[in-house]
Amino acid sequence: MRSATSPFAKELLHEIKATPEEYLPALLEIVRGFRHGILLKPAEESIRQGMKEALAGETLPISELWKGIDAH
User: Fold this and answer.
1) Above pLDDT 90, what percent of the chain?
2) CA 58 vs CA 44, 55, 66: distances in Å
3) Is-contact 24 16, C-beta < 8 A?
4) Could you report the per-residue pLDDT of 34-66, keeping only the tens digit for each?
5) How confident is the model at residue 72 (pLDDT cuts 50, 70, 90)?
6) C-alpha angle with apex 67: 24 to 47, nearest 5 degrees?
7) What is the residue-wise DSSP string for 4-49?
8) Which among 8, 16, 24, 64 could bridge 60 via Cys, Cβ 3.0 to 4.6 Å?
9) Which residues fall within 8 angstroms of residue 27, CB to CB, at 6 or more apart?
C-alpha cells in the first residue's frame, strides 16, 4: 500500500476535499467498487471455486440470488 504522503494519495485527498459533501457517499461507493474489482480472483480460479461449491451442493435458489437486486 502507498504511504499517505505519496503524490497519488495527495491528489486523491485533494479531489475528495473538493467534492461537495452530498456526493461523498457516491464517491465512497465508487472507490470501494474499484478496490473490490481489482482484488477479484482471476476468472479461471473463480470458475474453479464455483464448480467446487456447486459439486459440493453449496448452492442457493435463483430467487435468493436476485433478492435485493433492482433489475429495472
Assistant:
1) 44
2) 19, 7, 17
3) yes
4) 888 887 778 888 889 889 999 999 988 888 888
5) low
6) 90
7) TTSHHHHHHHHHHHHS-GGGHHHHHHHHHHHHHHHTPPPHHHHHHH
8) 64
9) 16, 19
Cell 459440493: give the residue.
56
Look up the pTM and report it: 0.49
Q: Enumerate residues 6+ apart whose C-beta is below 8 A from 19.
A: 27
3-state SS record for 43-72:
HHHHHHHHHHHHHCCCCCCHHHHCCCCCCC
CB atoms near residue 25 (< 10 Å)? 9
